[in-house]
Amino acid sequence: MLNNKTILITGGTGSFGNHFVEYVLKNYKPKKVIIYSRDEYKQFIMAEKFKDYKSILRFFIGDVRDKERFERALNGVDYVIHAAAMKQVPTCEYNPIEAVKTNINGAMNIIDGVLNTQSVKKVVALSTDKAVNPINLYGGTKLVSDKLFTAANAYVGDRDLSFSVVRYGNVAGSRGSVIPFFKNIVDNGVTELPITDFRMTRFWIDLNQGVELVIKALKEAKGGETFISKIPSFKITDLAQAMLPDCKLKEVGIREGEKLHEIMITKEDSMTTYEYEKHYIIYPQYSWWDNNKIIEGGKRVEAEFEYMSGNNHEWISIQQLKERLINI
Ligand SMILES: NC(=O)c1ccc[n+]([C@@H]2O[C@H](COP(=O)([O-])OP(=O)(O)OC[C@H]3O[C@@H](n4cnc5c(N)ncnc54)[C@H](OP(=O)(O)O)[C@@H]3O)[C@@H](O)[C@H]2O)c1
């Protein structure tokens, strides 16, 4: 479905963007892929990396805070993936207005820009577990962004256009996450690893699974869905043992803005959540939303269902973690 289509990705030079572009170029024959981001150096590096695809890739310098510029980039675009964000929790806490401008005003500009242009058929915005019951500003801004994209479907009228959201948790090995943190101290020869809380759990998702979920959303979305992958969980203490076998563990206390478990679907969301073979979809709870848009093949989850890394059915053992870490 991406063959001969023009795709624009905001934040296309980031970790997700790089992997998405690689995946799309390998598996489809798009007409054009437009990378929309601010830093020319990151675009230069990416252009070098994908130099064999010069005729397909376009590097557009632009800020999601700048609606006019974004609208200019939208000319002839079929699909928009919105990945640009400020996403470091401490940075967002210290620079709250900047986080609001990028994550909330930016989302508004994407929606308005798309509504003001005729060509776009689908918009998929990336979300995070931190948007669920948020306890920090990053999560708060992403919750607002999710709500904006879901509500945007009320404004499409008769147009063949949908807005949907894809939500996942920390990508294994991503910058600032626990794997590179442990790796760095293990490489320095320690025998003890710090654990903020021994009860802590996380979901395991890799970039490929994130990209595949976005492609699925592009293919299936009718508008208003929040797509969530079914993925296994692991204990942070097991991860430490996998990275440094027989190491001592020291509990150092939970950090500001950190949660014990990642949560993707709350009990309140469960009222409109459907389970599919490999994913869940949360549907909107708005009165204007049309139930005929529920995608076939799913079944409603039980009342009070909650999808959280701490109460998952599928877990990764220490041995399985060791095997997965080889590819990180
Ligand atoms: N990484 C994870 O573990 C994870 C987990 C769950 C959800 N997510 C979500 O996935 C999305 C992508 O994350 P990522 O890991 O790829 O992030 P990333 O590696 O930090 O990349 C962010 C991208 O956004 C661009 N950007 C930042 N501010 C911008 C602005 N104002 N206007 C235009 N572009 C801007 C950056 O390029 P410039 O600086 O050059 O503009 C960069 O290309 C985000 O929405 C994030 O919330 C990520």
Bound molecules: NADP nicotinamide-adenine-dinucleotide phosphate
The residue-averaged pLDDT reads 96
User: In angstroms, what separates the terminal alpha carbons?
Assistant: 30 Å
- Discrete helix count: 10
**CATH architecture label:** 3-Layer(aba) Sandwich
Morphology call:
globular
Summarize the main sheet: 10 strands, mixed
What CATH calls the topology is Rossmann fold
Low-confidence residue ranges: none
CATH top-level class? Alpha Beta
* Structural class by helix and strand composition: alpha/beta
**Spatial extent as radius of gyration:** 20 Å
Please indicate the count of domains.
Answer: 1
Pfam family, one: Polysacc_synt_2
Organism: Lachnotalea glycerini
InterPro entries: NAD(P)-bd_dom_sf, Polysac_CapD-like, Polysaccharide_Synthase-Rel, PseB
Domain Polysaccharide biosynthesis protein CapD-like: 7-282
